[in-house]
Model the fold of this input.
Amino acid sequence: MKPQSKTRFKPMPERSENQHVILRVVAKLLIPLIAVYGLYVHFHGDYGPGGGFQAGVIFASSIILYALIFGLDEAKRVVPPSWIRIIMSLGVLVFGGTGVATWLLGGEYLNYTMFAPDSTHAAGQHWGIFAVEIGVLLTVTSVILAIFYAFGSRGGSRRGSHSPNPVDGDKS
Amino acid sequence: MNFLTPAFILDVGLLAMLVVVAFAVVRLRSLFAIVMLQGVYSLISAAWFVSLDAVDVAFTEAAVGAGISTVLMLGAMLLTEREVKPVPMRRQWAPLFIVVITGMAMFYAIGDMPVFGDPNSIANATLGVEYVEATKSQIIIPNVVSAVLASYRGYDTFGETVVVFVAGLGIVLLLGLNGNAGKWRAKPNGQDVSQIGAEDAS
Done:
């Protein structure tokens, strides 16, 4: 890459207090609505379109909107990157653990009927689908945030000066 | 004029818009406009999926295609140039040849595909009907898609979740959550590895 391309874009101001007032006010109104809509899509997945995957994407987009308006550092205070690594693996663990739980209860892997074998309205299946969708929601939300943080932080680091040992200064 | 139903006109209109957007993406040079048009492309396909009664797919396409990937592509675009350099025509003959051959093969395969909504096609006649029927008594939830995804095809969904997890893992390993990729240097015996490579090269 050519050397002048590194300095071609002016650095953004750290926190623009007076700029973008309309954006900030509208975002403050919209972000909780988007988050609640994501949870609605998740818990309503049995009755309408949607489920863990779509809900995870919508929930992550509410945090991404927060990061776009208020800055990446503010978003990292809300959802720290150290959480993301844990939540990412926790989701897969919840999904796989549901299968292991049905295993231990005497059924096949991911045979949710074992949670309530005597139920007449398939309560075991409902619990199983609920648990599995929670796992999908956790993994998808955190992976999308991880990708966004990775790309967004890289843009920020390129703007900064090249310090000799920048890794020590990074909070993780 | 029996085939000119509103749904048919809507489908043709949406597909025509998709073709127009695709040509615009190919012809444009500004990366920002291309990323925005890709979002438009996803939104139009989502509308088309709704017209085909595939609401879950449309939902996913609108959320992922039009929402998240546009943001991620914008973030990636900030790290690189903002204009595409034009590729000389002599380097485009091989890709054009491959695209034409693939397109002809796909058009050839259309003849073997079942008619849209054909109740006797394999996808609709055998296992699909069984799932739709069995969901009423075995899962007892109204959305059959959720029942198939989470219960009947639980293994597949588990695999998908692991794929998403591995994608995130790869991103975190390659780029780092704080964007510190490329700054960490391996220093075996206190010696900078990248410096050794630089001396060999010079």
